[in-house]
Amino acid sequence: MITIVSYIDPVHRSELMQLWTGAFGYDTAHNSPGLAIDKKLAMQDELLFVALVEGRVVGSVMAGYDGHRGWLYSVAVNAAQQKKGLGSALVRHAEAALAERGCMKINLQIRGGNEAVTAFYESLGYGVEKRVSMGKLLPQNF
Questions:
Q1: How are strands ordered across the β-sheet holding 48-53?
Q2: What distance in Å separates the CA atoms of residue 137 and residue 78, rounded to the nearest whole number?
Q3: Are 68 and 56 in contact (CB under 8 A)?
Q4: pTM across the whole model
Q5: What are φ and ψ of residue 50, in 5° steps?
Q6: pLDDT reported for residue 28
Q7: What gap in Å lies between CA 90 and CA 96, rounded to an integer?
Q8: Could you give the domains of the chain?
Q9: 7, 69, 126, 136 - which has most CB atoms within 10 Å?
Q10: How many CB atoms lie within 10 A of CB 80?
């Protein structure tokens, strides 16, 4: 049986770091799993969720809300649990948490090279929007 619960540090930490490393590879310091978890715990820690099977972390979703828009990050499912509806359940769980806070629109970004996941998000009602995504690193914070 799969359950989705709020992340508890340090109970879920090592398994979540393992999941994210396997799912995302993390090729830059600002995206390291440990740093990402620490930063999330310092800000809206109630919007980090893990999926458990027999007490083991097999999936995750992280959400954020700035009062205007919500964001989804780090949606990951262990390879052995994929294609069973877990990713959809995680996204829906985060959507519900954001809706409870008054969120009217949710955004997400797909990393280059992972465009195949677009069909998954489209099946959940997300659409590709004409936007230019820009970013700037602030190295003093990692």
A1: 2-6, 48-53, 56-65, 70-77, 106-108
A2: 29
A3: no
A4: 0.94
A5: -125, 150
A6: 81
A7: 10
A8: 2-141 (3.40.630.30)
A9: 7
A10: 8
